[in-house]
Each structure stands twice: as structure tokens, then as C-alpha cells.
Design goal:
Oligomer: single chain
CATH class of the largest domain: Alpha Beta
Number of helices: 8
Order of helices and strands: EEEHHEEEHHHEEEEEEEHEEEHEHEE
Helix content: 25-40%
Structural class: alpha+beta
CATH superfamily of the largest domain: Fumarylacetoacetase-like, C-terminal domain
Shape: globular
Largest sheet: 12 strands, mixed
Number of domains: 2
Strand content: 25-35%
Number of strands: 19
Radius of gyration: 20 Å
Length: 328
């Protein structure tokens, strides 16, 4: 099932896509119409996740009965599938992206110095902005700003302190159930479903602050910076998340593509690592990190005012956002 959160009369509603993703069944309304009573798990997509298998089974029954009253998707505004996730972690799963991005980041930082050539030589000598050995030893992640999540077709207003505007082609999953010390071979059962993630990145701020060795801060944390959508595809409909084509386009022009088969770390690895002596909860989001060739930095191409970024992941759909400079 493809779950969405859409806005009706200024309030978020949980729905399911039908009719080739052209229409939405409002789950709460359809259930009330079909069964004559409310179903609390349909109050939101987060509540559905917390409702587990029973809620998903009920959703399938409800959609069958409610298709005739489905509304046109083009007539409503989609929010992120879970507008304010209870927790967000973005991980580094793709080695190719790291190799290319760190090389480009050195160039960006060197170009900001009086002598770029000398700066590049110094970076190479000292190993600055190189892939950390830790990446090959264990999954690496940071906790993102869960309050800056937006949905598809929402404008991104770029932070005033940044000039190098970039995007990141990622996907990720929502946690299905509570757990701790989860074995890798049991981890797939903790995945509820998948969505597309655009981790917008202020590259000039990011390359400057990474020298502090505490991870990204203002390079990632700004309003409108985390785009998700257009839907959440439940795990029962995504049989193999590790063979999906991923494509990024800017103003209709393809900038890069990759495949989830190239992940160095799989989602099961992330769950097993993060859950060591730390409980994870239904509705937490884990991002994959950028697929190789999936951002402007890797190509030394950056966004400009008015550019429209489209991220497509096979089986999920297209996440689309326009980037604007200036205040909203």
C-alpha cells in the first residue's frame, strides 16, 4: 500500500493512493462510511505505523470499500508521509558517493582559499576531507532536524548564509515496531515501509564545519531542509529494496542515477547497529545517505534560484521541490 498524508481544510489526513496513484482514499472517512464507526489508527500515518499489522490489514479492507469515493490527488496538497517523524537518522550507505563527494568537497574548500592549488596539496597531505576509516568498520549516521520536514511540490527557501545549494538523492525507511539489540537476521521485520528523501545541503557551510569533527550542523539544519515523499510504500509491497533505480533531475535534465544494489551498508546493518543498547520506536526514520552520482557536489554543479529538483526511486514515485533564494 502507498500511504500519504494530505491536507484537507487545513488539517492533515491519512490516505492511501489508488487508481495508478491518481486518487486518494481518505482512510478515516472511508472506514466510518463503510463500517459505521471510527478507527483511531487512521487518525494519522504515524498512528497507522503504531497500529502494526492489524491497522494495515484494516486499511486494505477499507480501501476496497472506499475506492468509489476516492478524491483526485491533483486537487489536494500532499504533506510528507509522516509530517513530523518522532526521530530521524541519516546514514552513509553508499561508498561511491563518499569517494566522489569528499573529492569535490576538498575542491570546494580549496577554492575558498587564496591559493587553491596549495590548499589541495595540504588536504591530501593531511588527509582532510577524506573518507574516514570508520565508514568501513561500522555504519555512520547523524540525527537530522525532524521539525524541518516538507513534502513534495513544496518550495525550499535556501538559508541566507549559504551560496552553494545542493540536493541529495536518497531513500529510507520507517521503523515498524519497538525493539532493542536487534539481530541483523531479524532486522528486516522492523521495517514498516519506504519513502524518498532529499537531504538538501548547504555545501559551503557543511565543508567549513566538518573540520570540527562533530558532523553536519548548519550545512543540513535549516527550515525546509528535509523533503520526503510523495508516499510511504509499505514493506509488503516492496519485495526487494536493494534493486531499485534512483534518478535525479534538475529542470527536467538528468544529473545522475544509481541503484540501491550498490549500498555498502544495508538497512538491516543500520538497525542492528543503532539498536545496540538503544531502543528504536515505531515511526523513526532512517535515511540511506546519497546514492553515487546522486547530488550536484559530485558533478561540481550547484542549484540556482528557481531550479526544480526531481528525485525518482523505482516503485515509490517522484519527489519534486523548487529551490528559491530569499525569505518566504
Amino acid at each position: 500500500m502507498k500511504l500519504v498524508t494530505y491536507e484537507r481544510k487545513g488539517k492533515p489526513r491519512a490516505g492511501a493512493l489508488v487508481d495508478g496513484d491518481r486518487k486518494i482514499v481518505d482512510l478515516a472517512q472511508a472506514h466510518k462510511d463503510a463500517f459505521g464507526k471510527s478507527y483511531p489508527a487512521f487518525d494519522s500515518v504515524q498512528a497507522m505505523i503504531e497500529g502494526g499489522d492489524d491497522a494495515l490489514d484494516r486499511a486494505y479492507e477499507t480501501v476496497k470499500k472506499g475506492k468509489k469515493d476516492a478524491i483526485k490527488k491533483k486537487d489536494v496538497r500532499l504533506l510528507a508521509p509522516v509530517p513530523v517523524p518522532i526521530q530521524m537518522r541519516d546514514c552513509l550507505c553508499f561508498e561511491t558517493h563518499l569517494k566522489q563527494a569528499f573529492d569535490a568537497a576538498r575542491r570546494v574548500r580549496a577554492n575558498a582559499t587564496p591559493d587553491p592549488e596549495a590548499a589541495m596539496k595540504e588536504f591530501e597531505r593531511t588527509g582532510q576531507l577524506a573518507i574516514p576509516k570508520t565508514f568501513y568498520e561500522q555504519p555512520i549516521y547523524y540525527k537530522a532536524n525532524r521539525f524541518s520536514v516538507i513534502g513534495t511540490d513544496v518550495d525550499v527557501y535556501w538559508p541566507t548564509y549559504s551560496k552553494l545549494m545542493d540536493f541529495e538523492l536518497e531513500f529510507g525507511f520507517f521503523v515498524r515496531k519497538k525493539g532493542v539489540d536487534i539481530a541483523r537476521d531479524k532486522a528486516r521485520d522492523y521495517i514498516y515501509g519506504y519513502t524518498i528523501f532529499n537531504d538538501f545541503s548547504a555545501r559551503d557551510a557543511q565543508t567549513q564545519e566538518m573540520g570540527g569533527q562533530l558532523g553536519p550542523a548548519k550545512g543540513k539544519d535549516f527550515d525546509y531542509g528535509n523533503a520526503m515523499g510523495p508516499c510511504l510504500v509499505t514493506a509488503d509491497e516492496m519485495k526487494d529494496p536493494y534493486n531499485l533505480t534512483m534518478i535525479c533531475r534538475v529542470n527536467g535534465e538528468e544529473w545522475g542515477r544509481g541503484n540501491t544494489s550498490t549500498m555498502h551498508w544495508k538497512f538491516e546493518d543500520l538497525i542492528a547497529h543503532v539498536s545496540q543498547s538503544e531502543t528504536i520506536y515505531p515511526g523513526e526514520f532512517f535515511g540511506s545517505g546519497t546514492v553515487g552520482n546522486g547530488c550536484g557536489l559530485e558533478h561540481m554543479k550547484f542549484l540556482k534560484h528557481g531550479d526544480v529538483v526531481e528525485l525518482e526511486v523505482e516503485g515509490i514515485g517522484i519527489l519534486r521541490n523548487r529551490v528559491l533564494t530569499g525569505k518566504p
